[in-house]
Amino acid sequence: MFVLIVSSNPATHAELNQTLSEFGLDWDTEQAQDAVTALAIAMDRPVDVAVAELRGPGFDGAGLLAQIRSHHPEAARLLLLEEGEEPAAMMSMDSAHRFLNKPLRAEELVDAVESVAELRELLDSPELKAAVGRVGNLPPPPKLYLELSRALESEDTTPSTLSNLISQDPVVAAKVLRMCNSAYFSGGRTVTDIRSAVIRLGQQTLRRLVLASEVFSQSIPGNIDREAMQQRALLSSQLAARLLGGSSSELAATAALLADVGMLLPGVRIPAACAAGELDKCSGPHYAEAGAYLLGLWGLPMPIVEAVASHHQPGRSRFRGFWVGGAVHVARALVSGEAVDEKYLESVGLRERLPAWRKMADDLLAAEAA
């Protein structure tokens, strides 16, 4: 395995090699202190793992990782963060698979690389590939959602711009108005036009609603109730954002929204349906893993892909503490009336928060039913 480290700290390489030797890992490592040297190395040989500081002398780590990705899309890409850099890092989700502490700690690097490798093995399993390969046409990427996301990145975007986009799809427009007039958002005031709905919902909620509308408009196999599935997804999304909070709340909200997307695919295993006697849902890859594979094909950020893949078993995620996957697991379980993995919550020191989270979920469900 070849590991390329881009760091302005000259001691990083020596310390890493010493720890790798203690671990008995035969990795080939090389350090570059600037972007030009790093790219020259990346052009010269295959890169298995690329590690870069978010900011270094004369280079932008996220941009550098994006360039390395263009040459070595298979490489694991890790970004080193100092305390306080997390908000800036949220803009780097497309170029980095993982965030690690700066200065680099060899133990964290080993854990991160093994986690990425495990996820790749999961999403590249022969069973999963065969199941997805049997599908004639995968659900397409959500077009309106991607257009909306691009529009929101522009400083010139106005509510009128967004409402014009939404109005292009009458089905989505109807769902936006329906949600805006639900008890949770309406405040007793009826909204009848898309522009007012856009303002009331807010950009991030609007983006998630459009994503849900497009994703769950796909043909769903079996006896799955599409409306109930979408409603569960939207409520889980709202709850997950509250559970995690901060700069990662939008990641958690989107991952929770998409946690059940694998159910759109035939030939997947859905334990609840199997327990209900639907024998065709008892074999094949788990729907969560299939959903994560689909999201990977759509190009969604790796934290969302990983959270979807492990939401039914949050302990499988090797991310330290309670992050996106944990929030998705708890939110989806509480909204669906399923068991929460209390051993997992105990392991991350948050078991005592469960009663308060249950109340949050109950209040959310009551508001929706009102």
From TrEMBL:
Location of the HDOD domain:
138-314
Q: Where is the signal peptide?
A: none
**PANTHER family noted in UniProt:** HDOD DOMAIN-CONTAINING PROTEIN, PTHR33525
InterPro entries to which the protein is assigned, alphabetical: CheY-like_superfamily (IPR011006), HDOD (IPR013976), RNase_Y/CdgJ (IPR052340), Sig_transdc_resp-reg_put (IPR014626), Sig_transdc_resp-reg_receiver (IPR001789)
In Swiss-Prot or TrEMBL terms, this protein is called HD-like signal output (HDOD) protein
User: SMART domains from the entry?
Assistant: REC (SM00448)
One GO biological process term is: phosphorelay signal transduction system
Against PROSITE patterns, the record matches this protein to: HDOD, RESPONSE_REGULATORY
Domain Response regulatory, first and last residues per copy: 2-117
